[in-house]
Amino acid sequence: MALLQTHNLNKHFGGLHVTADVSFSLEPGKIHCLIGPNGAGKSTFFRLLLGEHQPSSGTIVFDGQDITRLKSFQRINRGMSVKFQVPGIFGALSAQQNLQIALQHRLDSLDLNAEVERLLDFLQLREVADQQAGNLSHGLKQWLEIGMAISLKPKLLLLDEPTAGMSPEETFMTGEIVKQLNAQGMTVLAVEHDMAFVRQVADRVSVLHFGRIFAEGTIDEIVADERVAAIYLGQSHD
Amino acid sequence: MGRGPAFWSAFVVVLAFALAYPLFADGYDVGNNIYFLNWTFMALGLSLIWGYGGSLSFGQTAFFGVAGYSYGILTINFGTAYGFGLLSVLIAIAIAALFAAVLGYFLFFGRISGIFLGIVTLSVTLALERFMAQTAGPQWTIGSARLNGFNGMSGMPPLTLPWFGGEISLYPDIGLYYLVLCLLVVVYLGLRILVNSKFGNILVALRENPQRAEMLGYDIRKYQLGGFVIGAALAGLSGVLYTSWGQYITPSNMSITAAALPIIWVAVGGRSDITATLIGTLVVLSAFQALTIYGSQYALVVMGLLLVFTVLLAPKGLIANAGILLGSLLDRKNGGK
């Protein structure tokens, strides 16, 4: 059974049809990447999944339950978690406090401290644990937010451009982190532009174009699809 | 601000000084100086709402006024016998908290935040002031309590506690001073526990990034409402203490000037820290009082300048910055050993 399914999901902003009849299925245990040119509707689709936008029509089913009308925090409590494109951290607090706040939802103080220590090591944040999160480098902020997102032990981790603004080394490291999380059983859905990252991690890739699922397959199938190359190069298609 | 043995030693010294103060001061002066302590609860409440929770509220004086008038209406009508004086205090605070809960529900569950929260809370405060100011006519009575328009309500009894064999009426004197001081210590320590609890962590988290806090699975509206109601209850406590202390309350306690002053106390002290807020409020209030006596209307101008100075040069607050400076000096001294 699919972990996440959308059925004919639509979102209009006035006359603008941003998400058009998206029927999408995400298998558990996979890393699924969502790509597409700018303006394809990827971010809106993510916001619909998170409950930040309400769909104009269609349904979203997560883990066997219809979550279309649930609020964001209710979806999170059912096993979703997200890392935003712009790092969503608590800038005035230390990296360690950021993780503590994320973890306190689920753990008591004794287990919490052990888990904070584990995450600091896992995400290579040990040296900056006491630094104010707002002063960390961009890459470290991204990792810290990934740490906060996985603190919830989600069934589904949503990553919105997790490598935006990262160096090639940091991008590779992020890919390795995502693969390790997946190996621990976490299903991942990532919106990403960086094709090296997509190639590194994705089991399956969907291409979104003009709000519709345009193509779907493995990374090799997508790369070989001339229609996909055409939309990225700005050419018209049938 | 305020961890470790150095802080707690200073806390004990200040508390000891506060406890000993009536021993070497005139009872009349002690009674007058309770005035300063009365306001601190409202400031601490604002620190919780604004400094920790990130919601700038101009509503503190509205809750102050609601509780003050409620205390007056209750005690004028029913007296203070059989413990009703104390019960009136609790009911008045509960009315202010309930009012805040209803207002806060529409604000936070309606997702009103930022500057709009400030505008709505200020509007509510000023609407209350205008309403109370037009209650001069004899028809504006509740039972035997006359609201009395702009001249204010007076004649309510002082704070009265039930005691063995009768009641104790606490007029502005040493007894009331110790009671208010004791309340302040309890509220301060209670708030310290609260802001260091999970609840306090979430308040800070939603101040820093409400979207992230919600995406950690917290229903941030409930936490915002919770902080708002606790802060309002503290403003209500200030309202009751002030009203029973002076046996008097007027609509001007909810005027735009009155609504702005707590913002200045808290901002100048350091809104993100209850210790800085407490010290700042007492210092700024004392300075304001002295200026009012010697400089009349210039006191308000100075308060305005103080706020501008703080916002431009020490946005974390003067006391908070002084605390940070002191902390780094101590660290350097310890590191140099």
From TrEMBL, chain A:
Stretches assigned to the ABC transporter domain: 4-235
Keyword rRNA-binding attributed: no
Record GO terms (molecular function): ATP binding
Name under which the protein is recorded: Branched-chain amino acid transport system ATP-binding protein
Highest taxon above the source species: Bacteria
Lineage per the UniProt record: Bacteria, Pseudomonadati, Pseudomonadota, Alphaproteobacteria, Hyphomicrobiales
InterPro entries named in the record: AAA+_ATPase (IPR003593), ABC_AA/LPS_Transport (IPR051120), ABC_transporter-like_ATP-bd (IPR003439), P-loop_NTPase (IPR027417)
Keywords from the UniProt entry: ATP-binding, Nucleotide-binding, Transport
